[in-house]
Structure formats: C-alpha cells, structure tokens
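Please, structure for the following, as tokens.
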Amino acid sequence: MTNKILFAGFGGQGILFACKVLAYGALLGEKHVTWLPSYGPEMRGGTCNCSVCVGDTPIGNPLITYPDTLIVMNGPSCDKFVGSVKTRGTVYVDSTLVSRNVERNDVNVHYIPATALATENNLEGLANIIILGNVLRHSGVISLEESKAAISKCVSAKKQHLLEANNKAIELGFNYSE
C-alpha cells in the first residue's frame, strides 16, 4: 500500500523541511519513499508544496495527482488542492491561518491550530512540525520515534540548537486532540 501525501503552504513555512522529516522517517522505517518539492522562483512568501509517497513496495511515480492526505498551511493552498484529494482521503488544515471550513463531505478533515500552538508554546516557526505530528498520530505512516530520529538527522549542524524545540513540536502535534 502506498500513502500519497501532499503538504502545501507559503515558502518559509517549513513545508520542505517537514516533508524531508517525513521522508527520512519512512526510510528509517525501511519503507519505500519518494520526495518531490515544488516551489515558485520567489520561494519565501511564494507558493510551495511537496509530495511524499510512502509505500511497502517500490514507487514507480513520484507525481501525485490525487493525494490520500493533504496538509494545508494557508488559504490559497487549501483552495488549490482540496478538490484533488481522493474520496475518503484526509485533509489537515492549519486552522490558525485558514479561517474557512473544507466544504467537501467525502473526506475526513482535521483542524489543527498549528500556528497558534507554536506561538503559545514558544515554538515560533514550528507550526509545520506540529501539524506533521498530528498527521502521524492519525495516519501512522511513520512512528513518533521514527520522526524524532529523522529530525535529529535533518536538523543541520549549525541549527542543532533547534533540535529540542523540533522534538517538542512533533510531540505537541502528536498529542493534540481536537
């Protein structure tokens, strides 16, 4: 079985980093993975999305037309991608930044105030990891332990001071219930 995950938002929200953590965690769990980032030339502040496919067998195509799971961190991304989610798929919405509800009744929707949780817990800039933690809780695509191991591999040497905060953020999202 392959889980096709699309994570979207503005450049600078850590979309690519969250997907890198997810992909690396899946590799640590000995799963097959593809990671395909996409962003505009303006990068920070422009649109950004990343596709991650995680499967038990080799993945032939990294392109995702109809995601099983969609994570959106802004309104424009919600507008652009929510219609493409497979029936009975799952949508995760940063409800701090997306003020409207998903109007589809054939998908599961989770509203996580990731940006507000980041601010309230002195984890500014880590809403991406908070919402990823919640995705892991519901999907089980990788374990919390695999995500923490991936974070330790993905946080660069010059940003090691952020390792503890990233681990706190993933746990916060994992333990968040609506």
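The radius of gyration is 15 Å. The chain has one domain: 2-175.
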